[in-house]
Design brief:
Layout (H helix, E strand, L loop, with lengths): L5 H7 L2 H10 L4 E2 H8 L3 H13 L3 E6 L2 E6 L1 H34 L1
Antiparallel strand pairs: 1-3, 2-3
Length: 107
């Protein structure tokens, strides 16, 4: 069984970092665009991005004076693998609930 991705959970527990990840989900963005979307200072956004980069969640692509950030797939693939047994558990429970509700509707 995969190890729980506790560092990723801890990292994303901070609301601003989670917002950054949500914004980057749609694709690469420059820091200035993240600053505008979040409504916080550039140094604060850069601090969060530095933590996300150190943790391997985002990567950066320099382009002249601009820095474009994007999500890396690996941490989320690891999270997906860890969640898989829980999906099976929920799927089984939801299938049972559906069968129960169907049975009640037919009686």
């Amino acid at each position: 069984m995969p190890v729980p991705p506790a560092p990723l959970f801890q990292l994303l527990a901070e609301p601003r970092r989670l917002e950054i990840v949500e914004l980057l989900r749609d694709g690469e963005r420059p820091v200035g665009e993240l600053v505008d979307a979040l409504g916080i200072s550039q140094p604060a956004v850069s601090k969060h991005l530095r933590l996300l980069k150190t943790a391997g969640v985002v990567d950066v692509r320099p382009d002249g004076q601009r820095r474009y950030y994007h999500l890396k797939a690996e941490p989320f693939s690891d999270l997906d693998a860890w969640l898989d047994p829980y999906r099976e558990l929920w799927s089984t429970h939801l299938d049972r609930l559906e069968a129960h509700l169907d049975a009640r509707r037919t009686t």
